[in-house]
Structure formats: C-alpha cells, structure tokens
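ok so for the tutorial part 2 we go from a plain amino acid sequence to predicted structure tokens. step 1 is just haveing the sequence, like this:
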Amino acid sequence: MIFTDYIFEFSSNLDKIALIDKKEISYKEIYGGVQKIESILKEEKVTKNDSILLISDNSTFFINSYFGIIKKGVICVPVNPSLSKNEIKYILDILNIRIVFVQQKYKNKIQNIISEGIKVFTEDSVENFIPNLKEEVVLENIEGDDTAVMIFTSGSTSKPKGVMLTHNNLIHNTNSIVEYLSLTEEDRVEVVLPFYYCYGTSLLHTHFRVGGSLVINNRFMFPQIVLEDINKYKCTSFAGVPSTYQILLRMTDIKNMKFPSLRYITQAGGKLANVFINDLLETLPNTDIYIMYGQTEATARLSYLPPKLINEKIGSIGKGIPGTELKVINKYGNQIKPGEIGEVVARGKNIMKGYFNSKEETVKILKNGYLYTGDLATVDEDGYIYIVSREKNIIKSGGNRTSPKEIEDIIVEIPEVIECAVIGVYDDMLGEAIKAFVVLKGTNTNIDEKYIKNFCKEKLASFKIPKYVEFLSSLPKNSSGKILFGKLKEMEESKREK
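step 2 — the prediction. this is what the tokens look like for a chain of 498 residues:
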C-alpha cells in the first residue's frame, strides 16, 4: 500500500481540522493540496526511481508536497533548509534530482546551484498550476518495499548518508506508535520539531493516520509562547528532545502553569537527565510522560518506557515498541546479563532498506538481520534497557573509559545550569582529558570552574571529574535541538592548532 493512501485512508474527505498553521485547515483541504502535487508530478512524467527534493520549514506547503510526492510513488527527500549550498548540491548530484519543491523564502539560496533542466516549484507555482495532461499517464506498480522517503543523516564520513525508508517501514512504525500512545482522532499535538527530522515526521504520520490534528509552532526561540499555545489550542500532547525540555523547565514559567488538556508528552532524540525527568514529573503530575528511543535508520521509533514505570525505571528507554525486537548484545552476539554493557541491536519491519549507494556503510550496521545502533547500554533484572553512551563518544582518559552522559547528568543537577556537554580533548599525559561546556541561566551567578569541579568531586570518581570547564552562552545545535558534539570538538582542535 502506498504510504499516503494509508495515511488518508479514513480522512481524505473530512471537513475536520487537520492542521493549525496560522489558520485552521481541514483534511479535505490538505488532501486537495496533496492531489495537486501528485498532478504536477504526473505531468512531469516521473517514475518510482526518481527522487524529489523538498526544502521547507514546517508548513502546509511541506505537508502537501511531502504526501503528494509519496502518493505519486516517487521518493521524497526532505532536507533541512539550513544545509549549506554545497551539501544541497551534493544531494542534488548523487540522486540526479530534476525536480525541487522549495518554499519561496529559500528559492534564492538554491538558485546558483540548480543546473539547467531542474524544475523548481514554490508555493506560488503550485497554487497557479493548471493540469494540462494530453496523454494518458502510465501507472506504475508501487510495492511496499519500494523506497518512499530518503532522509539524509550525517555519518562517520564527510558526506551525509541517505537512509532509505520504504512504504512498509513507514506504515509499520506509524501503527506501532499509534498503538502504544493510544492515539485517537481527539488528539492534537503542538509541533516544534522539524518535519524533515524523523521524530517530527512521526508526529505528522501518526496524528494524520488517526484523524487527529497538529498545531505548527516554528517559534521555539520564544519558549513561553510555546507553552501558552498548548493551552490556547487545547493540545493533548507535546514532543521534544532533551534540550527542548531543559529550556522549558529552566527558562520559562512552566512550574507555575496548568495544562488541563495535556494528556501526555514524549521525549526522544537523546537521553534526558534524571533531574529533568523528576522536574517534569513534579511539574506535570496529571500528564503521562513517555521516554522513548529511536534512530532514523529505524523509521524513528525503537522503544518506549510506559509512564507507569517512570519512577521505578527512571533513566531507562524501556523495551521495544510493538512489533520490534530490541536487545543488548556483547561482542560475541550473546545477550548481556544485568549490569553488563553491550550494544543495542534491533529487528523489525521498521528497519531501513539501507543507505543509498553505500553498500559498505549499510553492511556495517545491518548484520545478521539486525540493525546495530552503535549505542552502548546495560539492562536490569526485568530486561529494561539503559543507554550508557554511543561507542564513538566514550572518553578514554588515562586508561579509564568514561561515559560523558554520566558527567553531564551530574552537572545539570546544579539548578543554575540549563545544559551541559562533555567531550574528550587531546592531552599529552592522559591521551584524552575531560572537558565540560556549560550554559548557565542568567549572568548573575557565582558558578565558576572551581564550583563545577567541586560539585563533581562530591558525586563522581576522581578520574571522571572534568579537567577543563568552559562556559558558553549556548551550545551548538542542529535545527532539531540536538547538540553538535562534532562542532565542540572542531572548536577544540582549532584552538590546539593555534
């Protein structure tokens, strides 16, 4: 089944509100926009092996284009509008793209990298499009295992990797999320995560599938307004990455607010420190809190922790979502015992088809029928999984292996700290030394390097105490709110070279 047909199976003719994007838009209106995009692509005689680039913020234009491209049976490639021109040109070239859907505001950015023969469609050109089909379109047979979406993610090499997700991948993951969140047509989510990010698109997929609704908010730079919009639009849910909740908890008036409509919130995109989870539990006593874990290569979601277990299993990512097998194995491929550390692997119909044009990279992580996530974890006696770190982020200092997350989780216990990132930096004696980057709330504070180190001394082994502490006004992040550890390491490398 084509993914778009699955999404709109019960809703294509509904007058019910599907989206609030400055104004209310019905399912019927959205689906009409989807069909218009499909008509454009029919006229352009694209085939299922063609890839269509989509450059847009969260908007009605994004949604219409995204589902319209998929409905035609071609491959939708949504990308971050803030990518550099070189990065966009790389994607255009390797996919041999000849059609681009781009918001008018970003058209000038790509003008100089669009070669002759590539057609560009903006909101205006879509709006003014009039079908002019003079010959019958040959219908292709679209299979469930055909690629529907390709999401580019940064990898170990300098070039981004294209994660190929099939119609079946998307359908399976959507069904699983709908099931464990118990989503219905009554649910409405406020969306601050970008749709080109798999966590963001999962919100779009699941709520449209059940006939629910979304509120688009592209203004997280004003976090208080984000909170006010939950009540203004009577949202039943909200989703965020760790930095989302850290900012809301320590830079807004959330603790003095009530959210009567808020049924649940979800968190994924990295480990949220226990101190912030406890803050959320105290701040939102009548709201279910779902701690989740996933990867783009798994079509977004791999696990969740049931809200009723959040106190008992705090810090855990839970177990596999419905239909997905998740386990932690050692280097011999055997499941670890409680307290041991191994790598998280996953198997299910949500696992990607592979990386585009990169068999070498694909076989590194798709082995023996499993996705090897690269995340290190331990398990408890009940089989609940606790992420320790990514293997590549482990700091090897003076013969000791240290997880940066353990140190970060201690430092953010300081109430004046909004967020923290810990990396390993070059050291002549230790090989790697531990360095903490800290963002403080406000400027009138007595927190300094000595305070941070002394605080850590009370709670951590001596070899885990940061050798260096640097205070920043903000941490470098991508548009999804994830911290760019690579940027911090580049900053340190450039300092050393000088």
